[in-house]
Amino acid sequence: MKPSATPPKTATILASSLLLTGCDPMLSLQGSFWPAWIVCILAGLAASMLLMWQLVRLRLAPHLGPPLLVAPSLWALCTFSIWLLFYSR
């Protein structure tokens, strides 16, 4: 039987998972290290709540559509925008 030139699938997955663990940016908040995506999610939630409050205050919220679609979409937009603003290289 001829040995294969490519490594087994499990070895490839294990090696890639060990090499990719350092790719996530970490932030030090009060001495505790947090993944940057958690910080972006929380900042996106705060920003979307502020934007939604402004839309309600300006009486534009009823014209946007169903709130169950608008609010999570606004949260995702804010989260991804914050991520791109601070962590894009």
TrEMBL record:
InterPro entries: YtcA. It comes from the Bacteria. The chain crosses the membrane at residues 35-56, 68-86. It holds the Pfam family Ytca. Its main location: membrane. It is found in: Membrane. It is a multi-pass membrane protein. PROSITE patterns: PROKAR_LIPOPROTEIN. Keywords: Cell membrane, Lipoprotein, Membrane, Palmitate, Signal, Transmembrane, Transmembrane helix. Belongs to the YtcA family. This is Uncharacterized protein YtcA. It comes from Methylomonas aurea. The lineage of its organism: Bacteria, Pseudomonadati, Pseudomonadota, Gammaproteobacteria, Methylococcales.
